Amino acid sequence: MMALGLVVMGFVAGIAAGMFGIGGGVIIVPMLTTFAGLALVEALGTSLGALLLPVGVFGALAYQRSGLMRWRTALIIAGGLFFGGWVGARFANTIDQTLLQRLYGLFLLYVGWRMASPLQWIGVRQPAPDLTSEDDIRDNWLLITVMGLVAGVASGLFGIGGGAVIVPALITFFRFPQKIAVATSLGALLPPVGLLGAFEYYQQGNLEISTALYVALGLLLGAWFGAQITISLPAGTVKRIYGIFLLLIGLRFLLNL
Asked: How much is the pTM?
């Protein structure tokens, strides 16, 4: 695939990364299989390879300037992601990945439904108040480390950065406001947390380095634009858009599209 096409692909994924605090793999992987002709396992490895670079640095800096970043929490999560990614990559070729994809899809559908809250649109249910105060945050480093490990396993298994697990978990279990959860997740993905997992794919010949570099360049540019969009929107709107995004990604995993 032409280099420009790969950069554009990364740019699109980067906008989603900046908006939702994800690595972008949930978009990169299906694009690589559909438009670049890579096999699924090659797309998984190449996606992880692209995410080794600090592709969200401009987006993270934008959140930092807006006072939304919690670096201590981000570093704790990053530690869990680093080791969990290797575990996930080790299992990727040895377990029933179709079953795991469907279970993960169901998880995303559940979280996406809660965040999008479609019943509130038609007045069936009263909207829950959005979390806006940092005083309510439950910053338990041990539980956050465990959450990072779980997100890392998902990262290695599915070629994603882990943000699709991190952001909902920070909001649901640790009472992070939406924008702070997105910012912190993006910060956690700045270090090369997928290094062990990417190396596992590389050893198996399933990581195309040149493709990963072009995609990473697009991610770097797109993440800043995505962060600007999220910062400018009301928190409730960001939460709803993110819920719809998770519903779509959940359907993709569930239906194996």
From this structure: 0.81
pLDDT at 130 over 60: no
Instruction: Name the token pair of 248.
Output: 């779509």
CA distance 238 to 25: 20
Biggest alpha carbon–alpha carbon distance for the chain: 54
- The kind and range of the H/E element at 239 are helix 235-255
Instruction: State pLDDT tens for residues 72-95.
Output: 999 999 999 988 888 887 776 676
Q: How far is CA 196 from CA 20, 45, 155, 176, 216, in A?
A: 24, 11, 11, 29, 18
List C-alpha distances in Å: 161 to 22, 24, 137, 173. Answer: 6, 7, 23, 20
Give CA 248 to chain center in angstroms.
14
